[in-house]
């Protein structure tokens, strides 16, 4: 989702001014997506350029309305489902993968530090969720946001537990990504058999031909 789709969905509820859209967008996203007014108006200008909204100006204020094309665009977005795209690069995953070649102890130490940090994050998010629940204006949206971030953090913690078990049970070769029969210093791309006859280069053959002619 981008700010573009968010503003279209808000305008489907009715005409609105730019600053109103900013306030409504932040409330609708549970306070997790703050916007500045400049970003809102820049996006609205692009939507107007694309024929998705219209703008009426009166007394220096700009009132925006959704067009039929804007409704079609929004409906297409509502119906879209996540594609089977490669997952985004996960910092936690990449960090753990890069720790593996340094040995089991180092990888487990990195894992332990990440787990401690995630537990602290989870506790902080639970406290924030309890505080936001006291604000009736944003309680429902904030609750959905809190559920999402806490469940993702809990999933990361479960994944770290699984990684710890797999790393503890892995062999040194598995941690290094080395084939079982490959010893240290093994060339993964061996050269040709030294006992095989060497092919004669084109330059050598040409020199022999000249000598034979003389």
UniProtKB/TrEMBL annotation:
Domain Transcription regulator PadR C-terminal: 89-167
SUPFAM superfamilies, alphabetized: Winged helix' DNA-binding domain (SSF46785)
Compositionally biased region (Basic residues): 200-214
Pfam families with a match to the protein in the record: PadR (PF03551), Vir_act_alpha_C (PF10400)
Domain of life: Bacteria
Comp. bias regions, Low complexity: 174-199
Domain Transcription regulator PadR N-terminal: 7-75
Annotated region (Disordered), positions in chain: 174-214
Alphabetical list of PANTHER family matching this protein: NEGATIVE TRANSCRIPTION REGULATOR PADR, TRANSCRIPTIONAL REGULATOR YQJI
UniProt-recorded name of the protein: PadR family transcriptional regulator
Organism annotation: Actinomarinicola tropica
